[in-house]
Design brief:
This protein has 2 domains: 36 residues, no CATH class; 108 residues, Jelly Rolls. Helix content is 0%, strand content 47%. The chain is mainly β. The chain has no helices and 10 strands. The radius of gyration is 24 Å and the shape is elongated.
Length: 159
């Protein structure tokens, strides 16, 4: 430990200390004497929008569409996602997260009542680097028109 606190070297008793793993440091407070915390009073961090649309012509009866992976150093918060078959109804539909090619979390599942109707997710999905958002629809026939929309925001990582 670089800066040991010994009885003969004790700090001013009016100074609150924190240990950063190497050294003790004086904690910062505001004029009201409250501890200042980086990011305090910040509802969420914001880096940029996530606005993605993936379209495909069906090649199988069950189509899964995914986004590109979240880049290193970013966290995405998906607040709305929708998937639809614009040619026919989807008896089964789901939206969730894929990590390392595996479905890790299905956020929502259901169906659509008819062609051109979206199955929607509204909430919060948190994706780390390498994760993808996926959407799945069943009941497809070759060349059905599938559309997957993803909306949310990218968070900044506190440093």
């Amino acid at each position: 430990m670089a800066n040991e606190i010994l009885p003969e070297l004790s700090p001013n008793p009016e100074s609150a200390l924190g240990y950063d793993g190497t050294d003790f440091r004086t904690l910062a407070v505001d004029t009201d004497g409250q501890l200042r915390v980086k990011g305090e009073d910040q509802l969420f961090s914001y880096k940029d929008q996530v606005l993605i649309r993936v379209t495909a012509a069906a090649t199988t009866s069950g189509m899964t569409l995914t986004t590109n992976p979240v880049p290193s150093g970013e966290v995405w918060v998906i607040t709305n996602a929708s998937i639809g078959n614009f040619t026919r109804a989807a008896p089964v539909a789901s939206i969730g997260i894929k990590a390392n090619g595996e479905t890790k979390y299905a956020a929502a599942g259901g169906s659509t009542a008819g062609a051109g109707l979206y199955f929607c997710f509204n909430g919060h999905l948190y994706l780390e680097a390498g994760n993808r958002v996926y959407g799945y629809v069943s009941g497809c026939e070759v060349d059905d028109s599938i559309t997957f929309n993803i909306n949310g925001y990218k968070m900044t990582k506190e440093t």
